[in-house]
Amino acid sequence: MEEKKNKTKRRLWRGLTTTTASLLALSLSASMVIDTFRTDIDKFLGTQSSQMITESQSEGDYVFQSDYSSTTELLDAIEDLGERMNEEGSVLLKNENHALPLTEEETQKVSLLGFSSYYPVQGGDFGSTLSVNTGTDADTVDFVQALAAKGYSINPTVQNLYENLKGEYESLLTSLWGTSENVNRITAPAIDGTFSSRELSTDTMDSTDSTWRDSMNDYNVMIVTLARAAGENKNYMPGEAGVDPEQNLNQSDPLGLSDTERQIINAAVDAKAENGGKVIVLLNNASAMEIEEIKDNTGVDAILEIGLPGGYGFYGVADVLSGEANPSGHLSDTYAVDNSASPAAQNYGNYSWTNPDSAYSINSEVVYAESIYAGYKYYETRYADVVMGQGNADDAVGSSTGGAWSYDEEVSYPFGYGLSYTTFSQTLDSLEVNLEDRTVTAQVTVTNTGDVAGKDVVQLYVSVPYTDYDRANLVEKSEVQLLDYGKTEELQPGESVTLTLTADAQDMASWDSTCANEAGTTGNYILDAGDYYFTIGNGSHEAVNNVLAAKGYTEADGMTDAGNSANVQTWTLNAMDTASFAYTVNGTAVENQLADMDLNYYMPGTVTYLTRADWSGTWPKTYENLTATDEMLDIMDNDTYEITAQGDTDAITWGADNGLTLSELKGADYDDEQWDELMDQLNLEDAMIRTGFGGTSTKAIESISSPEVIQNDGPNGINSYTLGQYANTDENSSDPYVVSEDDPNLNYKFGTMCNETVIGQTFSKELAAEYGRVIGNYSIWSNLTIFWGAGTNLHRTPYNARNHEYYSEDPVLTAYQAASYIAAGKEYGVIIAPKHYAFNDTEINRSGIATFMTEQTARENGLRGIQAAVEDAETLGVMTTYNRIGITAGNAHYGLLMNILRGEWGFKGLMSEDFIQDANYSVLKEAVHCGVTMTCNTGDSTMEAISAKWDYWTTDNVSQDAVLMQDLKNVMKWQYYAIANSNAMDGLNETSKIVEVRTWYDNALTAAQVVFAVLTIAGIVMYIRNMKKEK
Amino acid sequence: MKNKSAGFYMMILTAVLAVIGVVFYLINCNTSYFSNLGVNTGLVACMVIAVILELVYVFGYKAPVSRVLDLIPVVCGVLMMVAFVLFISVRANSIASILTFENNAQTMSDLMSAIVGMVFCLLAVIFNIVASFFKVVKDEK
């Protein structure tokens, strides 16, 4: 009996020992793993594992100053700007019989129809998601809350009906960690998904509450909200292929209307016929919807495009509806009748290689066969050619109706279009082209000719000559292109103002890949000989009509409107100019850098690019089922830089004791000689680890006493962390921006701004700059410095569901909104980085997709959209792209990254990869060689850890290659030059040094290890004692 | 077999779970998304040694060295726990990437074998702990 009892006890101790030993193993191995993920753990828990200790700190150590004295003022500014963004960024597209603005009485009789009125899309499904804030000084609101706050009264019968039926319009949303949740707003399809309309059928509504229609007699201002969601890694497929096949709702395109959406509009129109009210449609979207039938519906009085308004934009929408604010937004995209009929849409999809290889991220390809003709550049150019009778423009090819191509059948609302509650006249008073200064200067007088105050947008367009030379050399010319824009202050009725616009003349130059250049090769910017027409207008179509009128065409030639030749100024160039832009602003001779982006470079004769010389004969076919050749596969394996013994390695100094710290170079010029001395202090290992593990924060380096700098995502605000996570709460600090630990705003999360399309629609560089200033102030208070916050890719088609993070289809509007924003933020020390450099215009297979286009398309569309952010705003950060440049990994293309970005444009700053975790596709050695300063990977700051990820990244290997070591020196200098000129250095001085900090979780883990170790030992001892007893 | 007790069956089950866990890990290592990350030999070694020790334990228990074998569950617990943590460690970044930036049918499919493998590894750890409280044979020495 005793023996049995002992045996039982022995098993008990064995079991307990196994338990504690397993937990001891867990705690010991976890502590090793923690070092690998320390940054992310700190981010999650709000802890810090290292900090800078600074002696004799004073206010003078804080260079960048906030405009605000409290977090309340800061949040008030954010809220105020968010409201004004939608006041100026909402676009009034239709306003029959002055339906808008509503009278005060009408604001008390509002019926909200469409479930999106109650559950609107305010941000992306993922990426620029709305941060919902409560309990702060700037709580976010939805449409209903905003209307209530602005004093509107909403039909309770309809509101209750939608609330009671909310289970009927749920959408499944896959959340951050793969879990799915039902949400009541519409969601965007996954990459391989389809769009499901969730709008309620009126039958369902009738059967639930038959009184809802009659209730609108008392609430006869019917506002119908139609929404299309947006999201990173989301996608709309063109045409019926993009629509849920299980639904039979007569929906021909995911961005077109479904029958249930038509039903709700018609219900409102029917009610209006009975109650004499108004029908107003709100478009809650970032991807241009197909709304021709709403435009043509005479029962619909007004259409207002509101974008994704973020947390405060609905206040602005409410003000626009009531006339408290006069709309001044203009479309940043063309609203086409049939999006799938555009030439770009012919090659928008998932076109897998016939020989994909996931080991090397070889998945699919996309060919920009439309050449430069995306967005309005296509519609207006083809229209002009129809009028001018050239290039087979009126052929049925590309027509959405199947008949002869006709502008009115293709475009609902043109790029740049927008209405106001007042009327304006604009006159182009003067126009001067100064190629020596690289400027085009226009003076435009704007007069408010209506009877209410309002702001107006001036859009300056240019029409450049399309010559025989161009036809022979395949240089394409858009009939009109935006050259610059400006916005007036609020003008009272009868008031005039003259705006001076100074455009960059290079924006009207064309890239000619065949032209000789100053580098002695080919590829140059040219200005053709001929007449240049400059005009203004309410959108691209009015502009092109003005130009056509100036060219002598009339409505008899097929023009949709007579145009106004009086608003056209001409400038004549007598001979082709190949000199004015042969050198960039910094004196670098331009040449072809992207010839390998043309698929014909590798597969001659494969692609026919669209040319206006023959619209029908060169209409894009879909390039699919392509097979990468062996030559291509050699590049696509992403191993294009060979580490080898080369150069004078002794000439490169590491680990010098020069006694400098990064703080001593605060604000230093790039040419300051001390930079080289500081960089010599770095160890080779420092440089190798920091380039490899650069993700989520730029870690401290002891040898130069550089601080950890936190990175943040956007662009709808610094939304990665709360305001309080890294804010300074040390009351003994000299920091002017110390916050109290019980400040209610510490939990505020700044993912609250409207989406970038709305910012684009403001056509206001000042508002863009104001956003930069708010971001800058927030950065100072929150101590969050690096912000991947300016989306500068283009809306090549509306089908990219990530268009909400980018401004426009137009590169000039994109470039100058971004540049204004970035430059303003820089004044406050925040590094606002444009992304994604370059051509990340689709989310389909983005990690590996091969992107093909001509160099002219690349330079005049995608690259022009970011160039001003570098040349003019002198951004200190850039994020690269997931996609391939041609077939070369996006982080391995020397021509794009080194020759254009850092060479031609003179970029000096940090440059991060996007979130590429694959060791092969993140191409570390190639990236460093191409000027990328860090990947977005994280890991333990040891050579063992980094060599485990990239086996070639060892000191033995790299130290034999002087070229690569110099590359490492270069990228470290760029990175720390950017940081030294940012607010990350605030509070630091020459005494600052890094100290490691044990976090509470380090202590907890150590305690757990000790406890489990003691218990394990105790268990073993007891086990042995029992065993002895058994004997 | 009549002499076998609950611990025997639970240890066998533990070994089976561990084998399934490591097989799913290896399957996962050969999926499109994860193939570039290679095979973590430490993880595989820990699991394989643990499985071998489990088998030695349950089938060799009657041997004269039983009193030494008696502590094998402790060692197995340590090995399997280390393997489990390594499994999570080598997949954490990729999981984060797939569930956020690279979420599509292919990557989710590739991810599934990792998730299944981790679950089996964890179950093996738990079953090993539970089994260690029980005797392997009814007439345990």
Structure summarized in a few sentences:
With 1031 residues, chain A is an alpha/beta fold. Chain A contains 29 helices and 30 strands. Chain A is 31% helix and 15% strand.
Structure, explained:
The complex is a heterodimer of chains A (1031) and B (141). In chain A, 31% of the residues lie in helices and 15% in strands. In chain A, helix 8 (259-275) links the parallel strand 6 (221-227) and strand 7 (278-284). Chain A contains 29 helices and 30 strands. With 1031 residues, chain A is α/β, with parallel strands linked by helices. The mean pLDDT of chain B is 86. Chain B is built from five helices and no strands. Chain B is an all-alpha fold and 141 residues long. Chain B is elongated, with a radius of gyration of 17 Å. Chains A and B meet through helix 1 and helix 29 of A and helix 4 and helix 5 of B.
**Main structural class of chain B:** mainly alpha
Gyration radius of chain B, rounded: 17 Å
Approximate helicity band of chain B:
over 70%
Note the beta-strand portion of chain A.
15-25%
List the helices and strands and how they pair.
The complex is a heterodimer of chains A (about 1050) and B (about 140).
Chain A: H1 2-36, H2 38-45, E1 50-53, H3 71-89, E2 91-95, E3 110-113, H4 143-149, H5 156-164, E4 171-174, E5 180-183, H6 202-208, H7 212-215, E6 221-227, H8 259-275, E7 278-284, H9 292-296, E8 302-305, H10 313-322, E9 335-336, E10 351-357, E11 362-367, H11 376-388, H12 407-410, E12 411-413, E13 424-434, E14 439-448, E15 457-463, H13 468-473, E16 481-487, E17 496-504, E18 510-516, E19 522-526, E20 530-536, H14 540-550, E21 568-573, H15 599-602, H16 630-636, H17 674-681, H18 684-692, E22 697-698, E23 709-713, H19 756-761, H20 765-782, E24 786-791, H21 811-826, E25 831-835, E26 850-852, H22 855-862, H23 864-871, E27 877-879, E28 884-885, H24 894-904, E29 910-912, H25 924-929, H26 943-949, H27 955-958, H28 962-980, E30 993-996, H29 1000-1030
Parallel strand pairs in A: 3-6, 6-7, 7-8, 11-26, 23-24, 24-25, 27-29
Antiparallel strand pairs in A: 1-30, 2-8, 4-5, 9-12, 10-11, 13-14, 14-17, 15-16, 15-20, 18-19, 20-21, 22-23
Helix pairs in contact in A: 1-29, 3-10, 3-20, 4-10, 11-14, 17-28, 18-28, 20-21, 21-23
Chain B: H1 6-29, H2 41-59, H3 66-69, H4 72-100, H5 105-131
